[in-house]
Each structure stands twice: as C-alpha cells, then as structure tokens.
Design goal:
Helix 7 links the parallel strand 7 and strand 8. The strands form two sheets. The protein has an eight-stranded mixed β-sheet with strand order 6-7-8-3-9-10-12-11, with helices on both faces. It has 354 residues and is an alpha/beta fold. 28% of the residues lie in helices and 23% in strands. Helix 4 packs across helix 6. Bound molecules: iron/sulfur cluster (SF4). Iron/sulfur cluster binds next to loops.
Length: 354
C-alpha cells in the first residue's frame, strides 16, 4: 500500500458525502472472473457484488493482486486472455434511453456493437500509465477523432475543434498546440490530463479510473484529483476509483469497497471506513498509513503477504495474517457477507454467529 500521510484527526471533506441521487447506475452481483492456466484456476474475482449510484464515487482498495483491476476490466468486457467471466450479472442502467433500459454486460458479446456503444459512450476508463493507451504515432486530435467517430457523427474538422474544447475542459495549457502534439511530447501530468479529456469526450455516465495518479508526483496528483472531482460534479457522472492509496480515498470517495483475494471483505461509506472500520484487514490497512500528529518509531505492517493464488488458505483466506483470527472457526469456515446497515457490509466471523 502507498504511504501517503492521512490526517485522521481532520474531518473527511464534506464533498465526499455530498448527497447523491441514489439511483442505481451499475449493479454487479456475484461476479466471478477466473483464469484457467496449466497450474490450475486463478479466481481473480470470486463472487463480487456491489452497486454504484448515479453521481457517486466508489473507491476500490486493497493490496496488489486482490482483483481490483480485473473487476474493472470485467465491467468493460476487457478481461485479458485466458481470463473469462464465468458467472454473475453486471447490470448497467442507460438513463439516456427513453424509457431507460438496463443492459446485462456479461450477456453481451465483448466485440459486439452493443458493447462497443457502451465502451467510451456510457463507460470510459483511464489507466495508471496513459502511454500504454495512446498510440505513439498519432497526434492527440487524431486519436480523439477515432474515439468521437465511433460514437458520434463528426467530421475531421469538427473533431479538431472538439479535441481542443476537450483539452480546454481539463485545463490543459495551450490546447490548440497540444491537440496536434504526439503523446511523447507531453509530461506525465499532461498525458494524464489528455487521457481524461479523451475518456470524457463522449460524456460517459461512469468513469472507471484504475490507479490514475499512482505514477504522478504528489503535486500533479493533487491537481488531477481536483480536476476529476470538478469534472465529476460538473458532468454528474459516477466514478469507480481503483487505488491502493488510502490518502486518495479520503480525498475523493463517498463509498469504499475493500477487496482481498478476489472478494469484497468490507463495504461502507468513506467516513465509516476511516472512523469505524470493522474488518481486521481494513483496520490493518489503515494502521499501516502514516498519520499526522501520531509519532511512531516504526509503521505498523500487515504480517505475511498475499497468499499464492494456487494455495488459498481454508476458511477465511485472511486468517494466517489476521490478528483477531479465532482458531477452529476462522481456519475452517468461510465468512459470508453480513449486512450491518443498508449501506454497510462485512465478511468476518467477528460479526456473524460463528
Ligand atoms: Fe480475521 Fe476471522 Fe474475521 Fe477472517 S473471519 S478477518 S480470520 S476474525
């Protein structure tokens, strides 16, 4: 996990708890995405359920290898081979249709026209390293033209104007000049702004951001977070924000899901995660973040490491690392999700009847 400093004595910004309309936008139920390889089956996403509401920012946190990115890629039907969605429902509500329609993304052909319409138009994604998404041999306006042409009828001349406006919207300096530049001519922060501009060019209702600020220095990270928050509020879009940086979660999210080994182990509004975490894994993650005003000689760490995907521990998969593990219970029985309140869920025997 990242070690950004979090000031837990300071209230989490009210913008994080801004009232959302609570109309469902994305409804994922029992999603399973597995990778069959010679050594066995890796259950990268193993029965994940969650909802994202219109205009809401949900952060997905956890250590590397816990299934955050594969969950996001499953929603986009962009799971790399040999991965496959083997079960579950991914319902996406299209409010722009009249009357509104619901698409089960899992049932759609990944290469079909419905999925192509959803990607970019309804759901867009930005990545940690924009260079992997941009073509190095085309100018930005050319690449934006391709995105726009797939979803809207625009001429090449209009596309240049739209690209300049899109770059202006993300506060890119000299947008006319940058629009005709190539990705390698830009700094890391400018490339990420350009990536956001391209992702938002069709005004999607859901933006999936997969660690978009991890590769940036802290000043640029703060600027990009401010920009994303401002655009989210202006466009009324929802965000699924994948990160392993709890400092970023405190700044941007309204709801948090904590993932461990392909499962959501705790899900709650951001304030409850920071001030009253329930799951021992969430508590351990929070304890390993440096805090202002709390001087320590050595930061707390989570003992051990994420297990090998081919030898998942029995019972609760976190039990070999858990300071609260109960022998005879936690190493035997798999904890089931327990709904503590309508907005809060935890999977841990400490809160069940085991
Ligand atoms: Fe720890 Fe047991 Fe809860 Fe797992 S179920 S997190 S081992 S207390």
């Amino acid at each position: 996990m990242e070690t950004n400093i979090v000031d837990t004595d300071m209230p989490i910004s009210d913008t994080n708890t801004a009232a959302t309309t609570l109309e469902p936008l994305l409804d994922v139920t029992n999603l399973k995405t597995h990778f069959k390889v010679r050594e066995g089956t890796v259950k990268s996403v193993d029965g994940v359920s969650f909802k994202i509401h219109k205009g809401q920012t949900t952060a997905v946190v956890g250590e590397s290898g816990c299934g955050k990115s594969i969950t996001a890629r499953s929603i986009m039907q962009l799971v790399p081979k040999p991965g496959k969605i083997v079960a579950g429902e991914i319902l996406f509500h299209r409010y722009q249709d009249s009357p509104p329609t619901v698409v089960d993304i899992h049932r759609e052909d990944p290469n079909g026209s419905a999925m192509r319409r959803l990607r970019g138009n309804d759901i867009a994604m930005i990545f940690q390293e924009p260079m992997t998404s941009f073509s190095p041999v085309h100018s930005l306006s050319n690449q934006m033209y391709e995105t726009l042409r797939n979803h809207k009828k625009v001429s090449r001349k209009d596309a240049l104007e739209l690209s300049i406006n899109a770059l202006r919207r993300v506060k890119m300096p000299k947008p006319e000049q940058i629009a005709v530049s190539y990705p390698h001519q830009l700094s890391g922060g400018m490339r990420q702004r350009a990536m956001i501009a391209m992702a938002l060019s069709c005004e999607p209702s859901l933006l999936i951001a997969d660690e978009p600020t991890t590769a940036l220095d802290v000043t640029t990270e703060a600027q990009i977070l401010d920009l994303l928050r401002e655009l989210r509020d202006r466009l009324g879009m929802a965000m699924m924000f994948i990160t392993h940086n709890l400092g970023v979660v405190a700044e941007i999210a309204e709801h948090v899901q904590v993932m461990y080994l392909g499962k959501v182990v705790e899900s709650a509004p951001v304030r409850q995660i920071f001030y009253d975490a329930k799951h021992p894994y969430t508590k351990s993650l929070l304890m390993s973040v440096p805090q202002l005003n709390h001087k320590v000689d050595r930061l707390a760490t989570i003992q051990g490491s994420v297990p090998d995907p081919f030898s998942i521990p029995t019972g609760c998969p976190f039990h070999p690392r858990c300071p609260d593990a109960m022998p005879g219970v936690c190493d035997v029985k798999v904890p089931q999700p327990l709904q503590l309140t309508p907005e809060r869920q935890v999977s841990c025997h400490l809160y069940g009847d085991a």
